Fold this sequence. Notes:
308 residues; single chain; disordered C terminus; alpha/beta; 8-stranded parallel barrel
Amino acid sequence: MLGPVILAASRSDQMRRFVSAAPGTKQVVDRFIAGETVDQVVPIVVDAADKGLEVTLDVVGEDITTVEQSHAARDAYLELIDRLKDLGLGTKAEMSVKLSMFGQALEGGHELALANVRPVVEAAAAIGTTVTLDAEDHTTLDSMFAIHEELRQDFPQTGCVIQSYLFRTEDDARRLAANGSRVRIVKGAYKEPASVAYQDKAEIDKAYVRILKILMEGSGYPMIGSHDPRLIAITQELARRAGRKLDEYEFQMLYGIRSDEHLRLAAEGHRMRVYTAYGTDWYGYFMRRLAEKPANLLFFARSVLTKG
């Protein structure tokens, strides 16, 4: 079970230094990270729009330690929104935010994160798009859902993320589906104890399908975060049974993974959104991508060995 080991390494400063210095790292990071600056990511948004794809943009770097860093994170998203506005790309790109990056883990973090994320949500709404609150480890979720509920009072299009490996998620899905929320469902990419989360892949997949059925039968807008062909097929069948049109749900996949599938689904008329991360503090995001799929780790190992 390499996943838990890699997730533990994602919090290690020693491993961060080792991975950052490894000769093949940049080649692999470039596969998952669209760039370091707004200038580098904008052409990717334009290219996606030209191909009939949409994007959700994530400025990476949730491991902050000061209030000043939380304000810098807020300002980075506001800069991104200004650029999208200038280019008329607001309807093609939404934002994904991690509240930890906005100060959630600091003293008074719930209020700080809400204060930081609100102007981002306001600015996004002003250009015709929205924000989705990413899920992090289970200890942060009550705060995230409370902030989501607060934001939806003024901006009902604000989305949130739920994770199928957590025991609580079926109940969360019922509540969110009944409230008409935009909900991205993913399997989960944080190291969680057996007291709160399924540890077996088969159980996580079964829970994913149960939750997906709840969302499809509810009044919200499901966003299916998966590259798994079986889950994609199940999604299409559940949507058909629920009488959903193609624009009443969407698929979401990571930048750099199964790009041909992005185009195939879009060509079939599905809404297909590419989760596109960028920024300089890429390490935590990168390590979670390695943990999610052994093939990603093998790709990284081959790159390091061939460049060494």
